[in-house]
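MODEL INPUT / OUTPUT PAIR
PAIR INDEX: 1
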Amino acid sequence: MNMKNKSLKIIIIIFAVIITVGFSVFGWHIIKNRLTDPSRQASPVLKAITRNRDDNKINYSVIYDSGNIAETEAFIPDKVVFLNAGSNYVSKVENGKIIVTLDRTRLTDSNGNEVEPDETVKKLMKTLARESEHDILGAIIIIDGDNYYAFVEHNVNLCVPCHLYRYEKNEDTLTDLYCWNYVDLIGIAEYENEE
């Protein structure tokens, strides 16, 4: 093989690498924009106010049906009922899988007063136990008009994922709206189209 063929091969390889890198960067830019701008591919479903437990920073977010969130301006939360349900669950390991069961249905309101759960809350609590794959460290049931939510802290190794679920009453299932790490939920507001 002569020097001319080697040079031609090197030029072709360099050209192919440049084209590949160029398309990769361009493709990543498009994907990144779609992932970081949830309004392009999803519909807003709920607003949430959270406080980061590490730095106490308050965040206002819009949650989209795609599972993404975006920061938003401060808003006034809906008047909701918060019910503490965290100490009602027990976990055990069977065949290498964590099984969560509902031990009781004792609830307290935000003032620490004991509250009797209605039938929908009882069903939500059972569904939460049935669908959980990790220990439940804490659970807050949120009632916003006719809509029911659960804010649940799971024990997953060294992190504390905090899931916000919407309870689908007719299907008796939970829809995972979003998962934060190590936050407190301060308030929610049903999303209203403001256009």
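PAIR INDEX: 2
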Amino acid sequence: MLSGKERYVLKKVSSKCGEKKYCLVYREELASPSGRVKIGVKEIDGLISSLSLDGYIDSVVTYRNGVRAYCIAVTEKGKGYKREQTNSRRYMIFRLAVAVSSAVITFLVGRLLYLIAK
């Protein structure tokens, strides 16, 4: 399971690459000093390497105009991550609906038994 910061970086990389096979991404583009997820420029290296180890992306470090950048290819696992998230959210909503409906049915059966025994 990915952490919040890893999810943020994967979303940014996926949106940047789009349908292209490879894209060039600078660390500053991925950094988020404000907002819900706070990621510094120095954290990006570790996040990119962990995503690469998990098989979501393939990355190569390069220097362009003296600035560190990543040549990133989103793998099939990385492309399927959004679908995986949608499926897990759908499953969680289903489980919540089952729990709520079970509680309602239990309440109604309890009330019915109370009225019969009265």
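PAIR 2 NOTE: Helices lie at 4-17, 27-30, 43-54, 76-79, 81-117.
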